[in-house]
Amino acid sequence: MKKVIAIAEKNSQQTITVVDVDELLQKAGIESDSDLDSASLESKLIKKHIESLGYEFVTYIQSSSMPMLNMSVNNINKTVKHWNEEVPERQLFEMEVKDERPFFGQLYVDFAPVDGNVSDVLTVITEVDMIPETDTQTQSVKILTDFDYQALSIYKVNESFVLVADESLNISVQGNKVVFS
Length: 181
Fold this sequence. Notes:
By secondary structure, this protein is mainly beta. The chain folds into two domains: 3-71, no CATH class; 74-180, no CATH class. It is 14% helix and 50% strand. The chain has helices spanning 21-27, 38-52, 101-104, and strands at residues 3-10, 13-20, 56-63, 70-73, 75-80, 93-100, 106-113, 122-130, 137-145, 149-157, 160-165, 171-174, 177-180. The protein has a seven-stranded antiparallel sheet with strand order 5-6-7-8-9-10-11. It has a four-stranded antiparallel sheet with strand order 3-1-2-4. A two-stranded antiparallel sheet has the order 12-13. The radius of gyration is 22 Å and the shape is elongated.
């Protein structure tokens, strides 16, 4: 029995569903061990199945054994500003939360000033990760700039935190602040 994870989209919301490829082949009257180009055929059948459910097909991931899952990914965009209304001229920021916990166990938050540019984006990723050079699994936070440059990783260890900065960053202590630049 072959199953794949299909990723589909409807109204800007991505959905993941498990598709039984053998069942689709059977419904189409095709033997699963057919000499036809099986990868192309599977892709077409999966796309047709997803579209019949009212979704736009995005892609699919093959897996030989997986539990039956039906998960949704919720991406939430909001315009936000400083919580204190007494702050003069509060700037607007766009914040997007991407929930990838069903796939990778990660939660992403991207935010930047509304009137800023791409280099103003700050991304925070939360996940379970291993402290570098150890086998210790723990909560971690990754801070990225420019979408893909991982500037800082923070790992929780009991009541403490381990901070790991990219080697190219300069680290200085100013009073009770640690500055990475």
